[in-house]
Amino acid sequence: MRTAGARRCPPRGVSTYPVAVSGLLEYWYVFAAVSVVVFASGVVRRRKRRAGLGAYAHGKGWRYVEDDPSLVTRFQGPPFGRGGSRRARNVMVGSHEGRHVVAFDYSYTTSTGSGSSHSTSSHYWSILAMHVGHPMPRLEVTPLGLVSGLVDRLVNTDQRVGSEEFNRAFRVGADSPRFAADVLTPAMEAVALRQPEIGWRFDGDSLVSVRKGHQSVDEIEAKLAHLDAILDNVPEVVWREIRGGR
After folding, report:
1. What residues have CB less than 8 Å from 173, skipping those under 6 apart?
2. Which is it for the CA torsion 192, 197, 202, 206, positive or negative?
3. Which label site among 26, 83, 92, 109 has the fewest CB atoms less than 10 Å from its CB?
4. Three-state SS for 8?
5. DSSP code for 142
6. Domain ranges of the chain
7. 135-177: per-residue pLDDT in tens?
8. Pair 170, 180: CB distance under 8 Å
9. Exposed/middle/buried for residue 76 (C-beta within 10 Å: 0-12, 13-18, 19+)
10. Contact, 174 vs 136, CB < 8 A?
């Protein structure tokens, strides 16, 4: 017989949590499940992409490696040298039309704020470099859409050369105005304007193309043809001077 004031026990299987807490737990379970699915999908996509790039490299007789730390410091211009946690991944090395080529995904991180407001952002770039064979003076031809996000320029080094159409499409940075004028002939401008979304620069002994995002097979093929055409259209007088008159 139950005495007055005795505590009534809830039936078995009935939660004693408040409804709000129970609903919060259900929300957390759903969120956790969705996060797991999204993470797993990302892993599958990355693996599929790596497999596709590896197959592409194999088909061209190139070497593929997932990571190459030496490339992090191989080039000097932006986006290299920025941020932290720098990585060079999905690296493909080989030759194209007798020229040594390396293509890879480059990434780094930047941080803002501190304490509870601290956040970290990742930045991804697609890189393709073609070996020139000789150190070249600095010359950058950058699509205007990339200027604010990519190019760090020195004072008084931007050049206006050639046609108005070319100057509307690109910004040119060079340490030597004469070298820029000698390279950017009307024939070279025509080549650049055929692919106005592709920027390029001489970086040491390489011709380098940089784009935001991750590399793709179609992009690599387009850049290979484009960089080939650029090197083919460097005037012979420039090559003779670079080679010391030989």
Report:
1. 138, 139, 140, 142, 151, 153, 154, 157, 158, 159, 201
2. negative
3. 26
4. coil
5. E
6. 20-59, 64-112+120-242
7. 999 999 999 865 444 444 433 445 566 688 998 899 999 999 9
8. no
9. exposed
10. no
Measure the CA angle with vertex 56, ends 52 and 59; round to 5°. Answer: 140
Q: What is the pLDDT of residues 181-198, one digit of tens each?
A: 999 999 999 999 999 999
Rounded-to-integer distance, Cα 169 and Cα 197, Å: 9
Please state the three-class secondary structure of 72-141 as a single string: HHCCCCCCCCCCEEEEEEEEEEEEECCEEEEEEEEEEEEEECCHHHCEEEEEEEEEEEEECCCCCCCEEE
Place of tokens 């470099």: 129
Six token digits for residue 245? 């008159």
- Residue 22: what pLDDT? 61
Q: Which amino acid is at 233?
A: N
Report the chain's terminal Cα–Cα distance, integer Å: 113
pTM beyond 0.90, yes or no? no
Q: What is the rounded distance in angstroms from the CA atom of residue 34 to the CA atom of residue 125?
A: 28
